[in-house]
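Here comes a specimen:
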Amino acid sequence: MERHRIPPYPENFSIWYAYVNGRNPELTAAIEEILRAGKRFSPEINDTLYERFAAFTPDKAELREVGQRVEEAVGRMLDYLSHASQGTSNYGAALENFSGCLSTNDPTPGQINEAVAAILTETRTMTDLNRQLERRLASSGREIRQLRDALDSLQREASTDALTQLANRKTFDSVITQAIRDADYTGRPLCLVMVDVDHFKSFNDTYGHPLGDQILKLIGRSLVETIQSKDTAARYGGEEFALILPETDLEAAIVIADDIRLRVAGRRVTNRRTGETLGQVTLSAGVAQFVAGETITSLVHRADEALYLAKREGRNQVRSERELAPDRI
Protein backbone atom coordinates (compact mmCIF):
# COMPACT_ATOMS: atom_id res chain seq x y z
CA MET A 1 0.00 0.00 0.00
CA GLU A 2 2.85 2.36 0.80
CA ARG A 3 4.53 1.55 -2.53
CA HIS A 4 1.37 2.47 -4.41
CA ARG A 5 0.67 5.47 -2.16
CA ILE A 6 -2.64 4.11 -0.92
CA PRO A 7 -3.92 5.90 2.23
CA PRO A 8 -4.05 3.62 5.30
CA TYR A 9 -7.83 3.75 5.70
CA PRO A 10 -9.71 0.72 7.09
CA GLU A 11 -11.56 0.30 3.77
CA ASN A 12 -8.26 0.18 1.84
CA PHE A 13 -6.72 -2.20 4.38
CA SER A 14 -9.64 -4.63 3.94
CA ILE A 15 -9.13 -4.67 0.16
CA TRP A 16 -5.36 -5.14 0.22
CA TYR A 17 -5.49 -7.74 2.98
CA ALA A 18 -7.88 -9.74 0.79
CA TYR A 19 -5.56 -9.21 -2.19
CA VAL A 20 -2.50 -10.45 -0.31
CA ASN A 21 -4.18 -13.59 1.06
CA GLY A 22 -5.48 -14.37 -2.43
CA ARG A 23 -8.86 -15.72 -1.36
CA ASN A 24 -10.87 -13.58 -3.77
CA PRO A 25 -9.85 -14.37 -7.36
CA GLU A 26 -12.05 -11.61 -8.83
CA LEU A 27 -10.45 -8.99 -6.57
CA THR A 28 -6.97 -10.28 -7.41
CA ALA A 29 -7.74 -10.09 -11.13
CA ALA A 30 -9.12 -6.55 -10.81
CA ILE A 31 -6.02 -5.26 -8.96
CA GLU A 32 -3.64 -7.08 -11.31
CA GLU A 33 -5.40 -5.45 -14.26
CA ILE A 34 -4.93 -1.99 -12.70
CA LEU A 35 -1.26 -2.75 -12.03
CA ARG A 36 -0.67 -3.99 -15.60
CA ALA A 37 -2.29 -0.86 -17.00
CA GLY A 38 0.03 1.28 -14.89
CA LYS A 39 -2.85 3.25 -13.42
CA ARG A 40 -2.54 5.24 -10.22
CA PHE A 41 -4.64 4.04 -7.29
CA SER A 42 -6.70 7.20 -7.05
CA PRO A 43 -9.37 7.73 -4.35
CA GLU A 44 -11.99 6.92 -7.00
CA ILE A 45 -10.33 3.59 -7.88
CA ASN A 46 -9.89 2.71 -4.19
CA ASP A 47 -13.56 3.50 -3.51
CA THR A 48 -14.63 1.44 -6.51
CA LEU A 49 -12.62 -1.57 -5.34
CA TYR A 50 -14.14 -1.31 -1.88
CA GLU A 51 -17.69 -0.91 -3.18
CA ARG A 52 -17.25 -3.81 -5.57
CA PHE A 53 -15.53 -6.33 -3.33
CA ALA A 54 -15.96 -5.34 0.32
CA ALA A 55 -18.96 -3.06 0.66
CA PHE A 56 -21.97 -4.07 2.69
CA THR A 57 -22.96 -7.70 2.76
CA PRO A 58 -25.44 -9.04 5.31
CA ASP A 59 -23.77 -9.37 8.67
CA LYS A 60 -23.13 -13.05 9.42
CA ALA A 61 -24.43 -12.69 12.97
CA GLU A 62 -27.61 -11.10 11.61
CA LEU A 63 -28.08 -13.91 9.14
CA ARG A 64 -27.45 -16.52 11.82
CA GLU A 65 -30.00 -14.86 14.09
CA VAL A 66 -32.69 -14.74 11.39
CA GLY A 67 -31.90 -18.31 10.33
CA GLN A 68 -32.18 -19.53 13.92
CA ARG A 69 -35.50 -17.73 14.35
CA VAL A 70 -36.81 -19.32 11.15
CA GLU A 71 -35.73 -22.76 12.39
CA GLU A 72 -37.41 -22.18 15.76
CA ALA A 73 -40.63 -20.91 14.17
CA VAL A 74 -40.84 -23.91 11.84
CA GLY A 75 -40.09 -26.25 14.76
CA ARG A 76 -42.90 -24.75 16.83
CA MET A 77 -45.32 -25.03 13.93
CA LEU A 78 -44.41 -28.70 13.46
CA ASP A 79 -45.00 -29.29 17.19
CA TYR A 80 -48.41 -27.63 16.94
CA LEU A 81 -49.37 -29.77 13.97
CA SER A 82 -48.08 -32.93 15.66
CA HIS A 83 -50.12 -32.12 18.76
CA ALA A 84 -53.20 -31.48 16.61
CA SER A 85 -52.62 -34.75 14.75
CA GLN A 86 -52.55 -36.65 18.04
CA GLY A 87 -55.81 -34.98 19.08
CA THR A 88 -57.39 -35.95 15.76
CA SER A 89 -56.29 -39.57 16.27
CA ASN A 90 -57.82 -39.61 19.77
CA TYR A 91 -61.06 -38.18 18.44
CA GLY A 92 -61.13 -40.76 15.65
CA ALA A 93 -60.65 -43.55 18.20
CA ALA A 94 -63.51 -42.20 20.31
CA LEU A 95 -65.79 -42.13 17.26
CA GLU A 96 -64.86 -45.73 16.45
CA ASN A 97 -65.67 -46.76 20.04
CA PHE A 98 -69.01 -44.96 19.84
CA SER A 99 -69.79 -46.59 16.50
CA GLY A 100 -68.81 -49.98 17.88
CA CYS A 101 -71.03 -49.50 20.89
CA LEU A 102 -74.05 -48.64 18.73
CA SER A 103 -73.42 -51.55 16.38
CA THR A 104 -73.59 -54.13 19.16
CA ASN A 105 -76.87 -55.92 19.72
CA ASP A 106 -79.08 -54.20 22.26
CA PRO A 107 -76.57 -51.83 23.96
CA THR A 108 -77.62 -50.99 27.47
CA PRO A 109 -78.58 -47.40 28.39
CA GLY A 110 -75.48 -47.29 30.55
CA GLN A 111 -73.25 -48.22 27.63
CA ILE A 112 -74.90 -45.59 25.41
CA ASN A 113 -74.57 -42.90 28.12
CA GLU A 114 -70.92 -43.80 28.64
CA ALA A 115 -70.20 -43.66 24.88
CA VAL A 116 -72.03 -40.32 24.49
CA ALA A 117 -70.16 -38.86 27.45
CA ALA A 118 -66.87 -39.98 25.93
CA ILE A 119 -67.76 -38.42 22.57
CA LEU A 120 -68.79 -35.13 24.23
CA THR A 121 -65.54 -35.05 26.20
CA GLU A 122 -63.44 -35.73 23.10
CA THR A 123 -65.45 -33.17 21.09
CA ARG A 124 -64.82 -30.45 23.69
CA THR A 125 -61.14 -31.43 23.77
CA MET A 126 -60.97 -31.33 19.97
CA THR A 127 -62.73 -27.94 19.86
CA ASP A 128 -60.29 -26.47 22.40
CA LEU A 129 -57.38 -28.01 20.52
CA ASN A 130 -58.54 -26.49 17.23
CA ARG A 131 -58.94 -23.06 18.79
CA GLN A 132 -55.49 -23.33 20.35
CA LEU A 133 -54.02 -24.48 17.04
CA GLU A 134 -55.70 -21.60 15.21
CA ARG A 135 -54.22 -19.05 17.62
CA ARG A 136 -50.77 -20.62 17.47
CA LEU A 137 -50.77 -20.86 13.67
CA ALA A 138 -51.89 -17.23 13.40
CA SER A 139 -49.05 -16.20 15.73
CA SER A 140 -46.53 -18.32 13.81
CA GLY A 141 -47.80 -16.88 10.52
CA ARG A 142 -47.18 -13.33 11.77
CA GLU A 143 -43.71 -14.29 12.97
CA ILE A 144 -42.82 -15.96 9.68
CA ARG A 145 -44.03 -12.91 7.73
CA GLN A 146 -41.79 -10.72 9.93
CA LEU A 147 -38.85 -13.05 9.31
CA ARG A 148 -39.54 -12.97 5.57
CA ASP A 149 -39.54 -9.17 5.68
CA ALA A 150 -36.24 -9.23 7.61
CA LEU A 151 -34.65 -11.50 5.00
CA ASP A 152 -36.02 -9.34 2.18
CA SER A 153 -34.50 -6.28 3.87
CA LEU A 154 -31.11 -7.99 4.20
CA GLN A 155 -31.24 -9.02 0.56
CA ARG A 156 -32.09 -5.47 -0.56
CA GLU A 157 -29.26 -4.01 1.51
CA ALA A 158 -26.83 -6.56 0.09
CA SER A 159 -27.76 -5.79 -3.52
CA THR A 160 -28.47 -2.04 -3.39
CA ASP A 161 -26.25 1.02 -3.31
CA ALA A 162 -27.14 2.78 -0.05
CA LEU A 163 -26.94 6.31 -1.46
CA THR A 164 -28.73 6.07 -4.81
CA GLN A 165 -30.86 2.97 -4.17
CA LEU A 166 -29.69 1.58 -7.52
CA ALA A 167 -28.15 -1.85 -7.95
CA ASN A 168 -24.64 -1.92 -6.47
CA ARG A 169 -21.50 -3.15 -8.21
CA LYS A 170 -21.90 -6.73 -7.01
CA THR A 171 -25.43 -6.83 -8.37
CA PHE A 172 -24.23 -5.30 -11.64
CA ASP A 173 -21.66 -8.10 -12.00
CA SER A 174 -24.32 -10.73 -11.39
CA VAL A 175 -26.93 -9.18 -13.71
CA ILE A 176 -24.53 -8.53 -16.61
CA THR A 177 -23.25 -12.12 -16.36
CA GLN A 178 -26.76 -13.50 -16.70
CA ALA A 179 -27.72 -10.96 -19.39
CA ILE A 180 -24.74 -12.03 -21.53
CA ARG A 181 -25.65 -15.70 -21.12
CA ASP A 182 -29.23 -14.95 -22.20
CA ALA A 183 -28.12 -12.86 -25.18
CA ASP A 184 -25.64 -15.53 -26.23
CA TYR A 185 -28.36 -18.19 -26.05
CA THR A 186 -31.25 -16.29 -27.66
CA GLY A 187 -29.34 -14.12 -30.13
CA ARG A 188 -31.31 -11.09 -28.98
CA PRO A 189 -29.47 -7.76 -28.69
CA LEU A 190 -27.97 -6.53 -25.43
CA CYS A 191 -26.45 -3.11 -24.83
CA LEU A 192 -24.38 -1.61 -22.06
CA VAL A 193 -24.31 2.12 -21.32
CA MET A 194 -21.60 3.63 -19.12
CA VAL A 195 -22.48 7.04 -17.69
CA ASP A 196 -20.22 9.50 -15.88
CA VAL A 197 -20.93 12.84 -14.19
CA ASP A 198 -18.97 15.67 -15.82
CA HIS A 199 -16.59 17.64 -13.56
CA PHE A 200 -17.96 15.90 -10.47
CA LYS A 201 -14.74 16.28 -8.47
CA SER A 202 -14.68 20.05 -8.93
CA PHE A 203 -18.36 20.23 -7.95
CA ASN A 204 -17.59 18.27 -4.77
CA ASP A 205 -14.58 20.46 -4.00
CA THR A 206 -16.61 23.63 -4.53
CA TYR A 207 -19.89 22.79 -2.84
CA GLY A 208 -19.05 19.87 -0.56
CA HIS A 209 -19.86 16.16 -0.45
CA PRO A 210 -23.44 16.48 0.88
CA LEU A 211 -24.47 18.35 -2.25
CA GLY A 212 -22.44 15.93 -4.32
CA ASP A 213 -24.47 13.12 -2.80
CA GLN A 214 -27.67 14.93 -3.77
CA ILE A 215 -26.43 15.06 -7.36
CA LEU A 216 -25.81 11.33 -7.38
CA LYS A 217 -29.31 10.72 -5.99
CA LEU A 218 -30.78 12.97 -8.70
CA ILE A 219 -29.00 11.00 -11.41
CA GLY A 220 -30.12 7.72 -9.86
CA ARG A 221 -33.76 8.87 -10.02
CA SER A 222 -33.30 10.03 -13.62
CA LEU A 223 -31.96 6.61 -14.62
CA VAL A 224 -34.85 4.76 -12.98
CA GLU A 225 -37.43 7.12 -14.53
CA THR A 226 -36.07 6.48 -18.03
CA ILE A 227 -35.48 2.73 -18.22
CA GLN A 228 -37.98 -0.13 -18.38
CA SER A 229 -38.59 -2.89 -15.84
CA LYS A 230 -36.45 -5.38 -17.81
CA ASP A 231 -33.44 -3.02 -17.62
CA THR A 232 -31.01 -2.57 -14.73
CA ALA A 233 -29.50 0.69 -13.53
CA ALA A 234 -26.44 0.36 -11.31
CA ARG A 235 -23.97 2.58 -9.53
CA TYR A 236 -20.76 1.27 -11.05
CA GLY A 237 -18.46 3.18 -8.71
CA GLY A 238 -17.96 6.76 -7.52
CA GLU A 239 -19.77 9.03 -9.96
CA GLU A 240 -19.98 6.39 -12.68
CA PHE A 241 -23.20 4.55 -13.50
CA ALA A 242 -24.11 1.68 -15.79
CA LEU A 243 -27.25 0.62 -17.64
CA ILE A 244 -27.81 -2.99 -18.69
CA LEU A 245 -30.35 -2.98 -21.54
CA PRO A 246 -31.43 -6.46 -22.65
CA GLU A 247 -33.39 -6.84 -25.91
CA THR A 248 -32.17 -3.37 -26.94
CA ASP A 249 -30.04 -2.67 -30.01
CA LEU A 250 -27.38 0.01 -30.35
CA GLU A 251 -29.63 2.66 -31.91
CA ALA A 252 -32.28 2.31 -29.22
CA ALA A 253 -29.65 2.33 -26.46
CA ILE A 254 -28.16 5.57 -27.81
CA VAL A 255 -31.63 7.16 -27.70
CA ILE A 256 -32.11 6.02 -24.08
CA ALA A 257 -28.70 7.35 -23.05
CA ASP A 258 -29.34 10.70 -24.71
CA ASP A 259 -32.77 10.93 -23.09
CA ILE A 260 -31.12 10.53 -19.68
CA ARG A 261 -28.46 13.09 -20.58
CA LEU A 262 -31.09 15.66 -21.61
CA ARG A 263 -33.24 14.91 -18.57
CA VAL A 264 -30.36 15.61 -16.18
CA ALA A 265 -29.03 18.62 -18.11
CA GLY A 266 -32.51 20.16 -18.07
CA ARG A 267 -32.56 20.40 -14.31
CA ARG A 268 -31.03 23.16 -12.26
CA VAL A 269 -29.35 22.24 -9.00
CA THR A 270 -30.26 24.39 -6.01
CA ASN A 271 -28.80 24.52 -2.53
CA ARG A 272 -31.94 24.00 -0.47
CA ARG A 273 -30.36 25.54 2.60
CA THR A 274 -29.35 28.82 0.96
CA GLY A 275 -31.58 28.89 -2.11
CA GLU A 276 -28.50 29.44 -4.27
CA THR A 277 -28.70 28.07 -7.82
CA LEU A 278 -25.60 25.96 -8.44
CA GLY A 279 -26.04 25.59 -12.16
CA GLN A 280 -26.30 22.66 -14.52
CA VAL A 281 -25.13 19.08 -14.08
CA THR A 282 -24.19 17.23 -17.26
CA LEU A 283 -23.41 13.64 -18.13
CA SER A 284 -21.23 11.88 -20.65
CA ALA A 285 -22.15 8.38 -21.83
CA GLY A 286 -20.71 5.56 -23.90
CA VAL A 287 -22.75 2.79 -25.53
CA ALA A 288 -21.69 -0.67 -26.72
CA GLN A 289 -23.62 -3.68 -28.00
CA PHE A 290 -22.79 -7.24 -27.02
CA VAL A 291 -21.14 -9.42 -29.65
CA ALA A 292 -21.84 -13.15 -29.43
CA GLY A 293 -19.10 -15.01 -27.59
CA GLU A 294 -17.35 -11.98 -26.09
CA THR A 295 -16.52 -11.52 -22.40
CA ILE A 296 -17.92 -9.05 -19.91
CA THR A 297 -14.53 -7.34 -19.81
CA SER A 298 -14.58 -6.79 -23.57
CA LEU A 299 -18.11 -5.32 -23.54
CA VAL A 300 -17.33 -3.01 -20.61
CA HIS A 301 -14.09 -1.95 -22.29
CA ARG A 302 -15.87 -0.79 -25.47
CA ALA A 303 -18.55 1.08 -23.53
CA ASP A 304 -15.83 2.72 -21.40
CA GLU A 305 -13.83 3.72 -24.47
CA ALA A 306 -16.96 5.30 -25.97
CA LEU A 307 -17.47 7.15 -22.67
CA TYR A 308 -13.88 8.43 -22.72
CA LEU A 309 -14.45 9.59 -26.30
CA ALA A 310 -17.48 11.60 -25.16
CA LYS A 311 -15.29 13.16 -22.44
CA ARG A 312 -12.48 13.99 -24.83
CA GLU A 313 -14.85 15.60 -27.33
CA GLY A 314 -16.28 18.08 -24.84
CA ARG A 315 -18.53 16.16 -22.43
CA ASN A 316 -22.33 16.41 -22.13
CA GLN A 317 -22.80 14.00 -25.01
CA VAL A 318 -23.30 10.35 -25.95
CA ARG A 319 -20.85 8.36 -28.05
CA SER A 320 -21.06 4.74 -29.21
CA GLU A 321 -18.64 2.00 -30.18
CA ARG A 322 -19.23 2.80 -33.87
CA GLU A 323 -17.25 6.02 -33.44
CA LEU A 324 -14.21 4.41 -31.86
CA ALA A 325 -10.91 4.18 -33.68
CA PRO A 326 -9.92 0.56 -34.46
CA ASP A 327 -7.12 0.63 -31.88
CA ARG A 328 -9.65 1.58 -29.19
CA ILE A 329 -11.99 -1.38 -29.77
